[in-house]
Amino acid sequence: MRGRACLTVAVLAFAAAPVAAQQRPLAARVAAVRDGMAEFRFPSRSGVCGDGHSFIRVGEHMTVGNFSEGMYGRPCVPGPVRIVVSLANGTVTRVKGYVGPEPAPSSGIVDLGMTTAAEGSNYLLDIAAIADGGKASREAIFPALLGEDVVAWPRLLQIARREASDNERKHSEATFWLGRYAAAKLNGSDVPFDSDEGDRSDEEDVKEHAVFALSQLRGHEGVEPLIKVARTNKDPNVRSKALFWLGESRDPRAIDVFEEILKGGR
Hints:
16% strand
C-alpha cells in the first residue's frame, strides 16, 4: 500500500509540474530559457490575420511584414498572436510576431504555450521600455498592440517620453503608434488600426491633401503647422489626418498633443 501511495503522489506531482510552470509569470518563464529561443501565444483582436511567417494584416488597410510578389496570393488566416523571442544570457535580443498557420514544432524553440492578451502585451511592452533594448525594443511594439482588447497608449506614452529625452534616438516607434491611437480617438475608437476611410467631399479632399503636403516638407518643417491643425482645426477628419502624419513623422514635439487628445483634453 505504501508503495502504491508513493507512486500515486509521484504521478500527481509530475502531472502538476506543467500546471505550476504555466502559473509562473510569463517574464520568468521566458527568462528561464536563458539562451536560445522561446515562443508563446495570446488571443488576437478581431480582424487580425496572417500567413504564419511573412505578413500580418489588420483590417482592410494595414499589412505589415516582408512584401513579395506572391504575398497577396497567400491566404490570410486568423488566429492567436505567436511571439518568438531570441535570448542571450537571459536577455531578449530579438522579437518576432506571427499570426496564421504555425510551422511544425521545432526542438530548438521552447514552447511556453498560451497566455492572456493582457499578459502577452504587457510583457512585450516591458521589452519595448528597455532603454538599451536595441532591435528587440522596436520589434516588440507592433505585436503588443495585436492582443484582444488591448489598449496600450498609456505605456506607449511613457516609452515615447523616455525616447524623446534620448538624443541618439532619431525615430520613435512608440510615437508613431501614439499618433495612430490619437487619430482613432477623434473617431471614437481605442483601436490604433481603425481609420476613417469613408466618402469625402471635394472640399474635404482638398483639406486633407493640404495636410499631406505639410507632412512632406523637408527637415520636419511641417511638424509645427501640423500640430496647430491637430489642436485647432474644426474638422475632426482633418485633425485626424494631421495626427496620423504627426505619428508618421515620429517627431517628439508631437507627444504633447497626442497626450492631450488621448487623455480627453481636446
